[in-house]
User: Fold these one by one.
Assistant:
Number 1:
Amino acid sequence: MIQITKNLRNHLLTFSALGLFGAIFSQASAQDEKTLLGAGSTFINPLFSKMFAEYNTKTGIQVNYQSIGSGGGILQLTNKTVDFGASDAPLNDEQTTKIGAPVLHIPMASGAVVLTYNLPGVTASLKLTPDVIADIFLGKITKWDDKRISSLNAGVTVPSFPILIVHRSDGSGTTNIFTNYLAKVSPEWGTKVGSGTAVNWPTGLGGKGSEGVSGLVKQTPGAVGYVELIYALQNKMLFAQVKNLKGKYIVPSLASVSAASNIKLPDDAKVFFTNSDAADGYPISGFTWVIIYKEQNYGGRSAKKAQNLLQLLWWNIHDGQQYATPLNYSPLSKGALGVAEKILRSATYGGKPILK
Amino acid sequence: MEAVQDKIETVPARKIKASSRQVRMESVFRQTLVIIALLVVILVFGIMLTLIVESVPSFRALGIKYLWGRTWDPVNNLYGAYPFLLGTLLTSFLALIISIPFSFAVAVYLGEYNTKGWFSTSLRNIVDLIAAVPSVIYGFWGLLVLVPIVRNFEIKMGILPYGIGIFTASLVLAIMIIPYAAALGREMIRLVPSSLKEGAYSLGATRWEVIRSVILPYTKSGLFAGILLSLGRALGETMAVTMVIGNTSMLPHSIFAPGNTMASVIANEFTEADHTVYLSALIELGLVLFLVTVIINMVGKRIIKRFTNE
Amino acid sequence: MNPASIKFRIVKSKLLQVIIIVFAFAITLPLIFIIYYIFKEGVSRINWTFLTHIPKPVGETGGGIVNALLGSILIVLVASVIAIPFGILCGIYLSENRSGRLSYWSRLTVDVLQGVPSIVIGIVVYFWLVKPLGTFSALSGSVALAIMMLPILIRSTEETLNLIPPTLKEAGLALGVPYHKVILRVIVPCGTSGILSGAILSVARIAGETAPLLFTAFGNPYLSTNILKPMHSLPLLIYNYATSPYDEWHELAWGAALILLFTVLLLNIITKITTRRWNVQL
């Protein structure tokens, strides 16, 4: 009698354990299609964070976006561990070869890379010229009260603090936009350091993500770093006005970024517009792209998943754009939108276009 | 006589079947134990193998010169581990130097001055709890509380007020590794035979002189092993260091400058190492870290084993 | 004998005693300081919203940490389910086989495993699970944590069982009880509190680990129970929020740190109470 009930108990336990696992796993696969995984740019993270929260309320699709830096996003997409990557730097040649299959760059929005600083006693926005910025980051200008800075800012008393550079410690599209600009305006920077998502900085402290950089600048007196505009705004930090190609000092803002980004996009949307020659354009701005594989049938992805992804991206460039302006990102211009739509329509599943 | 023999010879068939099943279960059990022990061995060798295999591209591209290369330049695909080796050694040894007086004091106090009683038990428990606090919490506290303090100190000293840097990282590390040398040291000191100590007392030595000339020489190797264990812990510590060290791949020019350790550069750059050689260079760092910490730990444990068996 | 020199030596001895006591008790300061600080900053943050809501989008106030809380619990649970049977069985093997080649190598590798930095384990599990499966997952995070739990489990099980007098096992075997029943029904239950405290200690050890989760569990802003997909956890949350510039996130991190610290310390204290009976060196 005891033997029977013990056996029965053991069997019951095994079946219920199996049943539990089965329930978890089956719920898992149903859940799976309604979850999308993305990773990359910290530049666009505040905007994506808002967009995806709204999209979830609207459609119930969960988009798990991790801001690990543009370099990280591209790598994880190459490893096929995410559904889409986000980057402020389009794939370079080596990355294109490594990823093997054709990818699509879909522009999402553009933003400004601002020079944010922390100077005790200074509440004004400093004016900086391209050569001064380059020399600060090259380590040639080491104090805030250097003549070259004070001569540009007559009305402001700048304290005699040492300049502490804060740069990105991770692979960053923001770095890419910034160094792209620096290479254009300073030949010395171009030869000495170059441009890319991670460069060999001549000096400075490293912060992880735009979050890390703004965190460090906020806490360190005398620090200057480069982050996306919204990080400086949300944290009530000061940022500089930069002299553009046309000689005007431009305050980074929604308007000045839109002025700079109003260019004709090539068909593949891979373009930089730093050091723009627009009269009111802010010279250090750039696009963020979402990057996906052109052919979505890989690694056992279902057609439904691919469709969810494409619908998400379609929404991003249409209805989602309304969230850009309040966060000071510049939404896609009409021309850019046209190019983006065409690119999205070219995505296929098993050779057939996904979006009708 | 015959009745007993009858009882011995006739075993019911049911019992034979049950006992052979039992024998099978026994051997299954034994085999399971053996397999699991084997799996643990395979696991560790697997870890080592994975590290080696994934380091190969870096080794092939950069050779052994990687270890003393000074440039870490992902743009030009040039990697050199020297800044991180230096950062790791600097932070670990600095942390060790700061922590040794404290570990020593705790070990001597608990092992010699006050070995029993609730006072000493509470101290011992507190020291153990220091080791239990997760490293990310040390990093968090260090970042928000210790860094401003160090920054103010640097401003007063006229140094670049980063706040973050090798010095701060060493401070946080020092706190974290105190328990290892302290706990081991206490055990070693308690093992000193009282006959030796009593002999010294009877010759007129003071308490301190007994410690200095009897206990310390006797436990020398044990204390050294404790220091090695602390060192091993410090070398591999990742999170707390990453949060306060400054994350720059330049050679640190002073202990107040920012830097990077092998563990923290891996944590920062692993998820975005987009060239094969880049990723492989990071893993090679992991391999070096693995080998160094393992060797130090093993040496420490050997010394302890030899000491407690004497 | 010069009386002055004796006095000097005695004074020196007393002086050094004071110095040692001061140093010894000085190290309690950082711990008390840390606990106090986290308590002060975190306790105000913990409320019902905090414990039941997911984080708000970047820059908005409100929100909570329920996804990280649940994620931590799930990941640790799965890790324990994987590691505990493994660890205990291996510990049994080692205590039953004091000598022998497999024993020697097993012990050696357990020692090695104990010293491996957690970030290295994260790297290895990335290559073993994340890359082949094509996705970050809570499961790979659990596997990494399980690997870290093993040395503590194995070591504590082995030492607990070593303390049990061999006469118990011999008596069982002499009575004809099969070997596996002797071990599983007699010896192991005898060592329950030692093994249990080893298990609790191993859980406390990994509950706060961040590095292995960086490249495996990855993080997730939503509440999820799917272990085959990324999941958030308390240590990851603290790491991300602490290094950010948002004051709101700092506050969330303090609250999360309080919960984590409290849990880990509690587990350690429970372990101490249970080991007192055994005097096991864990």
Number 2:
Amino acid sequence: MVGAFLYLTACSFKNRQRRRLQRLREPRYVIGLVIGLLYFYFAFFRRGGRRSASFEVPAVAAFATLMQFFGSLFLMAAAVIAWVWPSGRPPLPFTRSEVQFLFTAPVTRRQLVHYMLWRSQVAILFGSAIATLFMRPGSLAGGWTFLVGLWVVLMTLRLHLMGVALRRLSVASHGTRGVARQWLPLAVVLGAIGTLAATAIRAWPALTTLADGSAVVAELQRLAGQGAAGAVLWPFLALVRLPAAASPAAFWSALPAALALLAANYVWVLRSDAAFEEASAEHAERQASTRTAPRAAVKGAAPTPFTLAPDGPPETAILWKNLILVGRYLSLRTLLRLLPLVIVFGVLARNSGTGGIAAFIAAMSLPLAAMAVLLGPQMMRNDLRQDLARLPMLKTWPVKGAALIRGEVLAPTVVATAAAWLLLLVAALFGAGLRPGSREAIALGANRASLFAAASVLAPAVILSQVVVQNGLAVLFPAWVAVGASRARGIDAMGQRLLMLAGILFTLLVSVVPGVVVAAAFAFLAYQLTGMVLILLPAVIVAVVVAGECWLAVEGLGRVLDRTDPSAVESAE
Amino acid sequence: MIDVQHLTKTYGSFKAVDDFSFRVDPGEVVGLIGPNGAGKTSTLRCIVGIQSPSAGAITVGGHDIVKAPVEAKRLLAFMADEPQLFDYLTVMEHLRLTARLYRVRDVDARARNLLAELQLSGKEHALPAELSRGMKQKVAIACGLLHEPRALLFDEPLTGLDPLGIRHMKETIVARGRGGAAVIVSSHLLHLVEEICTRIVIIDHGRKVADATLAELKTHPELAAAGSSLEQIFLTATAGEP
């Protein structure tokens, strides 16, 4: 049976690579490959070359202790999160084809687990190699301890997460009996969390008196290396020591413990009696049915944003449809994903020298508003990029291409604009408390109201132009754009994305130039005639010019869409 | 109602449909049959405006699908073999969206009747993920029928339906034909075509090989010898069997 699994894994890998090579017949993939390879060259080798000239000691060795500490904390956090916050994926995420072929074949559950482990090797080895290139620039040969060490860590983590998911499945399927059956791992996890929490509580008063961040980290390292907390963190530290080994001797001395942990997790997974087949089959079906649909699963039918009247332009209907998409996919988890960004901006804002909560909030809102304007259109995909996968259906609608695109670009523009306006309003309201002399205070100073009005007028125009560019690319080069949930992989696809990003930024700049030129001429004339520095009116001029350009672009794109053959929209890899 | 004249559709150097002409009058239910790769789906996709013809002309209710697509599509409904629903819209929201796009005013009353006709009552607020494949197919058909189209195209309409659903679907198709709509049914289920279609068009290698009622096909000088069933006639016409 191992032979069959190896054959399946090897053939899948070989054919995937062959398909990637075959698509290099198309110039866009060749260009993408060149860009991707150049990116790798400059990101890894060039930088590595410069670094190796200036540093005698490899980068890893210099930070070995810190890496070990934070690495072990990361692994610990990953293990705890797997227990308390499951990902929603089944323990063994088989594809629909695998379910169809393997679940019906005379294959034991243990063999299925082995197959999944075989299959994961391609990704783990590739990930380890890329990380080695990144961490140890130069050559793989020089970083073999890191490569092998990272493989052991990732493999152990994979096995552990698989084991946790299997245990969770067992608990879920057996109810209270399941808790009784899994009492040992549950007790170990709860005991570990309790031990770390108790250590942190005991050490808290001392930690708060330390002078700076580096002293806090040093104290935490000391605590993590002794007593009960040290015992809890030991397995994670033992694993991390392997890739962080500064020399082959350190590597060999760390290897036995790491391999023992790998073996323990392997046995733990194999001893599981959880019935994973049903969960895997359900997941495979869900994945297959949402392949061309949005990325997450809809949880339930939330209220619609507004009532759709039977009469009116089709654009409103498409806006309504796409706003529903936002409402039904936006969850607490999505918002929590933004939390790290908020914290980073908060820390940056606090360290920038502005004082007080109001100034803190204002300083935090401004970069977030800029993010909503510049990154919102990249992140919000509730438009043609999402719907292009259903182009055959859209083309049966009695709607002209231009109207369809107008409707599609509205939703991301509305959502990103609403976010930008809200953040600008917060900045305007709390900006009153800015400390005199701070950067924000100078920027907002006497013309704060005009500046916020101008920013509020410019924001939707800049957002709209980006959304139009994104949708225009989807219409003009459908095979270059990730459609629905599909996402091509490979160095060539990565190069394509880099090229697209550069194209989008360039087009955005070009689209703003005419408006800026007209507005600058108007502002100059006004200054010459009245001596006043106008802010709001030039912003309105820029916005109107950009909106006009967008209108013309959409009309042109609509004609292209009317002629577009759905077969031009490449199917997902 | 549907007039296809000298339709040719090519993909690169491959000619999927080659100088194909036929028409469907109001009240007719035409069965479009042919082997795999014969050009049926390409023909249907050209008629409904998903793809542009490489040559030839298609009119629906007198409107050219290329020159006046919006007017033509307003009269059309296409029920694809694989229902394409929006994962994040409920059944009723699909119907409301369709109503707005096709300018249907009394959406609530029509939706209620259609959902009852297609045994979807009670599923108004269900998302596609909560529906079986057959139910999704019915939702797509309900959306197609909502604006009371004068030209209907069904591509394998019975896929995924249970026996009761199959019976209701046949009744729905026949009722639309009797109600004056021009209907095209593309299917490999020859007994379905034999049962509900008033005329049969056979296509093979992109070219029309027969266009007649079943009775006429049975007396066709070249096909009559094949036997009395549509299956035997089909195999002879498409050279699947000598």
Number 3:
Amino acid sequence: MSDIQDEAAETQHVIGQAEVAAIDATVEGDAVPEVAAEGAGVAVDTKPAWWRRLLASPVIMTFFFLIVTMVIFSVLAPGTFNTVTNIQLLALNVAILTVVSVGTTFVIATAGIDLSIPSGIVLGEVFAVKALSLIQVGSGTAADVPADQTKLWYIIVALAGSLAAGLILGLVNGFTVGYLRIPPMLATLGTLGAGLGIALLMQNGVNIATYALNPVATGQLIPGLDNLILIGLVVVVIGYVGMHKAVFGRHTLAIGSSEEAASRVGLNVERHLLKVYTVGGLASGLGGFLAVAYFSTTSVAGHSTDNLSAITAVALGGTSLFGGVATIIGTLIGVWIPAVLQNGFIIVGVQPYWQMVAVGVVLILAIYADQLRRRARNRR
Amino acid sequence: MCVTVDDATTSDGAGSARRARTPALAARSVVKEFGQVRALRGASFEAMAGEVTALIGDNGAGKSTLVKCMSGVHPPDGGTIEVDGKAVQLSSPIDAERLGIETVYQDLALAPDLDAASNVFLGREIRRFKIIYDQAAMRRQTAKSFADLGVGMVQDLRVPVASFSGGQRQSVAIARAAMWAQHVILLDEPTAALGVIQTAKVLDLIRRVRDRGLAVIFISHNLPQVLEVSDHIEVLRLGARVARFEQGEADVDRLIAAISGAFTNEVAA
């Protein structure tokens, strides 16, 4: 490329970045003439600023889509869709998927993928119930006690069981991806099948019901707010800090952006991948614990597409499947879109199967937008 | 193996004055073999603080291997690496970094999705409460250090470096190395992929880094550029040093003669 073209490309780039550059001219001193030069670029650009901002931020775009959808359903079904009860029900329905998706966001941020989420959830369920059944209560076990006779320590034992299941699965995933260098899609496809198989073996293919964990889901530590929703929010906050404020998240994004760059500055890429997949496994295990608490039974065959739901939510939210770019808030929004569409279609009397069609289309559009954004950014 | 010419000691006047000083980074008779291939056959090299030392040679002469030996990527099979006159063991790039040696690779090695400040501090984040990073402080320090180095072309520290031009990215990589290097910066073909104007800016930056007292080691194929920026030039051929020049002693013809084996001023080892 000749230097004249080079300079032309620089000017073009300046237009794309003009808005951001105008907001914060961060570098003082020598930078000032450059920033001034970019001022010329701003004048050439005729698109309104809000439009560029919308396109530049996947989170805002998805949030905008969610709000529009909710407004449409509110207009079509006033007094049914837009009620506090319905919104609370929606929040309750998405809470478990939110927890799992936050974990998946970290995995996808490394340009990885975790297909083994269903086995994490199911193993989490099975381990929780198995842990409860180790506790002798009267003639039975803690798994048999009704919800109003449960004790805090039963719940803690069950939680420990679920987290142990998630931990084991996550460590296996992380070891195969990080140290054995097996492509994540195949490594977690393997643990998906193997994990589900182990769960079925442990249960002989039969589900077990337990009411002992119900307070975790439907109890209210904060009056008016179901615990399940509270737990979902807490996990989102932890995920947000972990991804966007902590060194852990920064290293996760760096590895997703360029493993080579990360290892050259001395990051231990293998060990970090092990940690990230462990986070994903723990989130699935916790999801399984919450699922038993909410549905009062294990469901060994009931979660087989939860991996796809979680990946959809993460991608809708604006986390890039190519790694390096991730947003926990986006994931929170992404979880809501399929749920709102499903709920809304049922309420306004559209065949709910349309939800699957709509989510599919929105997903492809969201990823196409991500591609466009990347292409525009890597213009040179 | 080593090309010898009888008048090898002719231009040694400057060389002996030079040898009175202790090099910031030196390689002494380094040998490196990859299976049957002897990439370095007793290669020596010296770089002084406050100087730009160019390392030139034909493809396959062993330049990159020598740089990798000095940056800890390849431990040498024989010979020693010395930092400030003391022999050191470099078994990983981290060892080299601890000794104040930073390397800028040909392919940059920046994380494209992170902003400049995050790249500069990647792996060495300023932390609060052990696990949280302090983005504001990192951005402040990066802005200050970029301003000190005159890296004015990086206009915004918040956008991902993927949106920067090649020259801007190279500047970020060099400025990062300059921020962390205590002694030495190794630059492996820093201008290979750049246009004319961007190259000039990067060369300016290299001079400013040198003026801070660091030893700058510079690999390039571009001989006019080498002559323009270097205080000292060392020529590698077939895995060993064949010539050394001080600034003003060499011209393009002489460098080509040294690279191709027609000229040497080095005593055979």
